[in-house]
Design goal:
Layout (H helix, E strand, L loop, with lengths): L11 H7 L19 H16 L3 E4 L5 E5 L9 E7 L12 H17 L7 E6 L12 H7 L4 H6 L8 H7 L11 H6 E9 L4 H5 L3 E7 L1 E10 L3 E2 L11 H17 L5 E10 L5 E2 L2 E10 L2 H21 L3 E10 L2 E2 L2 H10 L5 E4 L4 H5 L5 E6 L15 H19 L4
Parallel strand pairs: 3-4, 3-5, 5-15, 6-14
Antiparallel strand pairs: 1-2, 2-4, 6-13, 6-15, 7-11, 7-12, 8-10, 9-11
Bound molecules: (2S)-amino(hydroxy)ethanoic acid and manganese (II) ion (2 copies).
C-alpha cells in the first residue's frame, strides 16, 4: 500500500511548529497542557487530523488513549508493534516532552510507507493520556489503567485541584467511567512498544551523540504531606501564640533536601506547595505539599521516604501542628526489554545506552510487553521547563532512527 500524498514532506520540527501555539502558558512560560484541557484536546485533534490525512483511522480505548492503526492488508493485528508517547505536559513544561515522540512517530510512519518494505505485523501510533499526572496526581494514568497497574475505583476517585473527579472528567470527554480499566485483550495482541522521547538530561551532550537507546528508568514515587495548624490573623497573633503549618513545611522542605543528599544518587523534590487559605495577611491553617522521590534502588527510595515521613512528623509536633502523609503514585525501577533493546542496537549501530531518571509510559507497559525507548539529544539537558530543547537536525535524526528501528521490527526482526 503506497503512501497517500500528504502534501509537504512532514518533518518533526514542522509538525511541532504546527502545534507550538497550543497551551502556551504566558504566566509560567512554556506550556501547560493538562489532560482534557482545551490545549490537550486541541492536540488530540491535531494528532487525529494528521493520522487521518495519512489514511489511518483512530480508535479511542476505554481509558482515553488514542490508537491509529497502520493495518496489514489481512487486518491481522496479532503481535502488533506500537510507537508513540503523550501530549499532556507539566505546568510550564517544554515543547518536546511527549509531543516529540508523537511527531517522530508520524514522520517515521511516512518514511516506512515511502520505503514500502515487506512487513509481518501491524503498527499502531498511540497517544497515552495523563502521562505527567499533572491534573489527577498519578503519573502515567492512562497506561497504568491499561496495564492494570491502578485499580479502576481508585482512578475514578482521583481529583484534580478544582475537585473534579477523573470519573466526571472522563465522562465529560466521552468515556464511560464504569468502563475504565485493564485492556488484557489489547495487551495480548501487542508484540512490542518503542517510545521515542526527548532526553531529560545531559547524557547525549556528554557523549556527543544525537540519539541513545533506553536502558532503565529510575524508580519514582509521589507523596502528599498535609500539615495542619491554626489559621489566624497576621497582625493580632503574637509569634509565641502561633501554630503555623507554613513554618513546619519550610523546616520539612529543608530536612527533605538534607535526607536526600545523605543518599548518593537519591533525588527528592518539593515543587508544589499550597497554603490554605493562602492570604498575604493570613496565618495558614493548612499547608499541602508534594514530594517526588527517586532512586535506582527501590529499597533506598522506601528508606528515604520513611525517614522523610518520620522527620516531618517530628517537625509537625515541634511546631504544635499535625500531619497527614499519603502515597499518591509509585513506580519501581524498570529495565527495558533486553532482547528488544539489543534489536534496536542492531538497527542503530553505535547508539549508546542511557538510563533515565524520568518516568514514561514505556516504563509502565514494560511490565506487560517488551518495551524500549529511544532518546533524542537535548542540548541544555533541561526538561519540565520552557528551556527544554531539541535541535531541528537532531529531531529529524531521531525520527529516521525510529523508522529504521521500526522497519526491522515490522519485517519480523526480534
Ligand atoms: O515525572 C516524570 O519523570 C515524567 O516526566 N512524567
Ligand atoms: Mn515529563
Ligand atoms: Mn514525557
Amino acid at each position: 500500500m503506497t503512501a497517500p500524498d500528504i502534501g509537504s514532506r512532514a518533518t518533526v520540527s514542522g509538525l511541532l511548529r504546527d502545534i507550538a501555539h497550543l497551551g502556551v502558558d504566558s504566566r509560567r512560560g512554556g506550556y501547560s497542557r493538562p489532560v482534557y484541557s482545551t490545549a490537550e484536546l486541541d492536540l488530540r485533534g491535531w494528532f487525529i487530523a494528521e493520522v487521518e490525512r495519512r489514511g489511518l483511522t483512530v480508535e479511542t480505548d476505554r481509558n482515553g488513549a488514542l490508537w491509529a492503526w497502520w493495518d496489514l492488508p489481512s487486518g491481522d493485528r496479532s503481535d502488533a508493534l506500537i510507537t508513540g508517547s503523550h501530549l499532556d505536559s507539566v505546568p510550564g513544561g517544554g515543547q518536546f516532552d511527549g509531543p516529540l515522540g508523537v511527531a517522530s512517530a508520524l514522520v517515521a510512519l511516512d518514511e516506512l510507507r515511502r520505503r514500502d518494505l515487506p512487513r509481518e505485523r501491524a503498527l499502531a501510533l498511540v497517544v497515552f493520556p495523563e502521562e505527567e499526572g499533572s491534573r489527577f496526581g498519578v503519573a502515567c494514568l492512562g497506561s497504568r489503567l491499561m496495564a492494570g497497574a491502578i485499580a479502576p475505583d481508585a482512578a475514578r476517585a482521583l481529583k484534580d485541584p478544582e475537585g473534579n473527579t477523573f470519573a466526571d472528567v472522563a465522562k465529560a470527554n466521552g468515556l464511560d467511567p464504569e468502563g475504565i480499566g485493564p485492556e488484557p485483550e489489547l495487551l495480548a495482541s501487542l508484540g512490542a512498544f518503542v517510545e521515542l522521547h526527548v532526553e531529560q538530561g545531559l547524557g547525549l551532550i556528554d557523549l556527543g551523540r544525537p540519539i541513545a537507546i533506553g536502558g532503565a528508568i529510575l524508580g519514582h514515587g509521589r507523596w502528599r504531606i498535609s500539615l495542619y495548624g491554626q489559621g489566624n490573623h497576621a497582625g493580632t497573633t503574637l509569634m509565641a501564640d502561633r501554630r503555623d503549618p507554613m513554618i513546619a513545611a519550610a523546616r520539612a522542605v529543608v530536612a527533605i533536601r538534607d535526607a536526600a543528599k545523605r543518599r548518593p544518587n537519591a533525588r527528592a523534590t518539593v515543587g508544589r506547595l499550597q497554603p490554605v487559605p493562602g492570604g498575604t495577611n493570613v496565618i495558614a491553617s493548612r499547608v499541602d505539599f508534594w514530594i517526588d522521590v527517586r532512586h535506582p534502588d527501590d529499597a533506598v527510595t522506601a528508606d528515604l521516604v520513611e525517614e522523610i515521613r518520620r522527620t516531618a512528623e517530628l517537625i509537625a509536633a515541634e511546631e504544635d501542628c499535625t500531619m497527614e502523609f499519603r502515597e499518591e503514585s509509585l513506580s519501581p525501577t524498570v529495565s527495558f526489554d533486553a532482547g528488544l533493546s539489543a534489536q534496536l542496537g542492531r538497527s542503530l549501530p553505535g547508539a549508546p545506552v542511557l538510563d533515565t531518571g524520568a518516568g514514561h509510559d514505556a516504563g509502565v507497559l514494560a511490565a506487560k510487553l517488551p518495551s524500549a525507548m529511544l532518546f533524542v539529544r537535548n542540548p541544555n539537558g533541561v526538561s519540565h521547563s520552557p528551556e527544554e530543547y531539541v535541535e531541528d537536525a537532531d529531531a529529524e535524526i531521531g525520527a529516521a532512527a525510529l523508522a529504521d528501528a521500526l522497519a526491522d521490527l515490522l519485517a519480523g526482526e526480534r
